[in-house]
Specification:
elongated; alpha+beta; 2 domains; 43% helix; HU Protein, Chain A; 3-stranded antiparallel beta sheet; two-stranded antiparallel sheet
């Protein structure tokens, strides 16, 4: 999976280089890394806010979602345990990406 992710970042950097007419690939890599780092920093700063979202026009939305703690029954013993609260970041595609999604 890491190889596919790396290939995706490389393709993105090549497209940024072509779109902005940058001289070197290193400049494009730097721009992509700075953008991703800024996205990550923004989401981490607002991780405590349930429902916070970051909208990337024509791409998608990143939404912070909180789940409260809940009780779960353990299989054979019948014991009830509390599952701790969770925080997740959910991605929802928008624009062309959403139209091309396939639902199974």
């Amino acid at each position: 999976m890491a190889a596919k992710a790396r290939a995706g970042m490389e393709e993105l950097a090549m497209r940024v280089q072509a779109a902005l007419n940058l001289g070197t690939r290193k400049e494009a890599d730097c721009l992509v890394n700075v953008f991703v780092s800024c996205l990550e920093d923004t989401l981490v700063e607002h991780l405590d806010e349930d429902g916070y979202y970051l909208k990337l026009n024509r791409v998608g939305k990143l939404i912070v979602h909180h789940r409260p703690p809940r009780l779960k029954k353990v299989g054979f013993s019948g014991e009830t345990r509390e599952i701790p609260p969770k925080r997740k970041v959910k991605f929802i595609g928008l624009g062309r990406l959403r139209k091309l999604e396939r639902y199974c």
